[in-house]
Write a sequence for this structure.
């Protein structure tokens, strides 16, 4: 059956009718007093919602719902704000997002308080004290975003100054650009940097005056190649702390379900352990790398959550990053920046045999497989693999998923729809990297059709829209804005014909990714019998100027009737940044690691200083950063 919006509604319609027994007793909570968007086409807006035992027992007119009010019922006045179903993450890396969350903010004003070195040191001390348990578990104190040009001293701190923060733990602070970091004495000791250590090619170990002794400041490769050595200290206990921090970060953007989009068995076991301890505030669904351990995937796949965690299937990665020119195309890149040969089309990250075998194995075992494919040639291979598997095993209800699909041809869209492949697209790309696509990767004509949500919409097909965090913050309003407007950072509108209405974009963040995860009967809309997963926003996204969608804030996130996040008054007042960098200094740090990783994989003749400079200056996204995330995860777990 072809997956269309109409057929989806017919499939989901059985969830509309439930036993009246659900409403036989008074509600625990009733929400009213604001706009309530249900994302249920049969009942799109209601005045009130009643919850009992973590599930929705009524949604409709306030007068009717209030009949379920009892003596102990909590009445929540939305105060004119807007409530929607909780957002469902179609693709991200929530555990590594925990490292993004569990770090000190060293930014200068207006984004942080740090105007001199004393304040940076105090910020680190305060953060370490407030997060003592995390520091103990992770064995690391880390901060992102310092900028000496904004400091009174006009210089970075030294190792001795960072030693005042801690001599017990390694302390690392990373420049806002990601090009420079400062290590304390403990960190330098752990990576083996001494007076006898020469500068690595492509990097500089700054020295103390009249000495070869490192002063703690490391440039480019000198810190990029050393940083992974610090991660072996994290271990499973530290990974647990990061997993908790990641789910808290996702919840702050309104997600009630997060994804761990490329796990290894060790990480999946960490998530399982955190869930068993009751440490997950929201649901986490993971997909384990099919090229790492198929037996683990098969043995641990489950449709049921245990303590808010389940492993849903397998992840396959075919190619890399469009921006980094490592996505595998069917034609040469438009104007690639770097030392590329004529006719360069990128390359595959997996052999055709690996791809065909992995997809065949998934179908043979009835396992859902989600596949990272950005370039046209990568998608051609994926289409061939799925077609071959279906010819051999039949059209099984496993809901295979295309992840990203940046450079799809229109005929590929038709093929994916006909094969029943669900597209988890990345229209947020148009904001962060749209200008680069237009000018360098595919050119102005094909640039209009990256992340082709409009093509899927006109064909009546569902799709989801994701952040691939921590490549950028898991900012749901940025996702919504990009999916609706396709506005680039320069203000260009990249592909106006691929824009979709706000109500469609909301479905791509709620009910459709719930379907993607086989969870449409319990999540994704405000309907009787479903989980009471909600997000409360400052404004109604269907009523504001589309160009102002990114200014809407998440007020509160509710998971199964319990509040798991409330925004501070200060956060609600702060105007959203229109997009500096990729969303955070942490994202820029991942970019630098990705560029260095890609350089290491180049042929020796191309590992030139100029190529390093070009790759470091080029944007990168989840296609290449996901490899870095996988490397960091393995390092943290002591798996190499």
């Amino acid at each position: 059956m072809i997956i269309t919006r109409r057929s989806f509604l017919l499939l989901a319609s059985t969830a509309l009718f439930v036993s009246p027994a659900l409403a036989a007793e008074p509600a625990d909570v009733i929400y009213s007093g604001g706009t309530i968007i249900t994302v249920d086409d049969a009942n799109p807006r209601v005045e009130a919602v009643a919850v009992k035992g973590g599930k929705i027992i009524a949604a409709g007119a306030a007068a009717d719902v209030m009949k379920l009010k009892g003596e102990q019922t909590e009445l929540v006045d939305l105060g004119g704000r807007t409530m929607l179903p909780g957002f469902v993450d179609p693709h991200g890396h929530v555990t590594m997002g925990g490292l993004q969350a569990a770090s000190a903010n060293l930014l200068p004003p207006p984004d942080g308080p740090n105007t001199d070195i004393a304040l940076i040191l105090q910020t680190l001390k305060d953060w370490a004290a407030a997060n003592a348990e995390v520091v103990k578990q992770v064995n690391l104190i880390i901060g992102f975003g310092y900028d000496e040009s904004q400091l009174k001293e006009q210089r970075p701190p030294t190792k001795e100054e960072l030693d005042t923060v801690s001599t017990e733990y390694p302390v690392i602070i990373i420049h806002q650009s990601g090009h420079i970091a400062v290590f304390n004495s403990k960190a330098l000791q752990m990576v083996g940097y001494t007076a006898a250590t020469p500068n690595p090619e492509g990097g500089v170990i700054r020295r103390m005056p009249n000495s070869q002794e490192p002063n703690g400041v490391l440039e480019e490769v000198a810190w990029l190649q050393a940083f992974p050595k610090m991660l072996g200290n994290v271990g499973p206990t530290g990974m647990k702390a990061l997993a908790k921090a990641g789910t808290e970060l996702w919840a702050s953007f309104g997600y009630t379900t997060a994804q761990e989009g490329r796990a290894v068995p060790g990480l999946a076991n960490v998530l399982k352990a955190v869930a068993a301890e009751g440490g997950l505030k929201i649901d986490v669904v993971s997909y384990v790398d099919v090229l790492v351990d198929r037996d683990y995937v098969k043995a641990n796949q489950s449709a049921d959550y245990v303590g808010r965690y389940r492993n849903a299937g397998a992840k396959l990665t075919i190619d890399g990053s469009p921006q980094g020119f490592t996505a595998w195309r069917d034609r040469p890149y438009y104007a690639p920046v770097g030392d590329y040969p004529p006719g360069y089309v990128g390359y595959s990250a997996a052999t055709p045999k690996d791809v065909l075998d992995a997809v065949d194995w998934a179908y043979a075992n009835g396992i859902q497989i989600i596949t990272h494919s950005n370039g046209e040639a990568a998608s051609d291979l994926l289409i061939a693999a799925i077609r071959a598997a279906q010819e051999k095993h039949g059209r099984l209800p496993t809901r295979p998923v295309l992840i990203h699909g940046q450079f799809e041809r229109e005929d590929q869209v038709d093929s994916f729809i006909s094969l029943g492949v669900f597209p988890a697209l990345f229209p947020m790309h148009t904001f962060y990297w749209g200008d680069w696509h237009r000018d360098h990767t595919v050119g102005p004509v094909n640039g209009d059709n990256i992340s082709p949500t409009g093509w899927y919409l006109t064909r009546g097909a569902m799709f989801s829209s994701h952040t691939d965090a921590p490549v950028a913050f898991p900012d749901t309003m940025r996702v919504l804005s990009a999916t609706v407007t396709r506005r680039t950072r320069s203000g260009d509108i990249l592909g106006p014909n691929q824009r979709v209405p706000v109500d469609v974009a909301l479905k791509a963040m709620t009910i459709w990714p719930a379907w993607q995860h086989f969870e449409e009967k319990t999540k994704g809309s405000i309907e009787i019998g479903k989980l009471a997963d909600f997000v409360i926003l400052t404004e109604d996204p269907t009523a504001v100027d589309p160009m102002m969608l990114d200014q809407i804030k998440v007020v509160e996130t509710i998971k199964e009737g319990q509040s798991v996040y409330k925004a501070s008054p200060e956060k609600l007042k702060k105007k959203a940044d229109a997009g500096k960098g990729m969303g955070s200094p942490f994202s820029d740090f991942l970019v630098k690691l990705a560029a260095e990783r890609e350089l290491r994989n180049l042929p020796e003749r191309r590992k030139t200083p100029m190529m390093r400079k070009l790759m470091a200056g080029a944007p990168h996204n989840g296609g290449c950063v996901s490899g870095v995330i996988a490397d960091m995860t393995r390092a943290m777990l002591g798996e190499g």
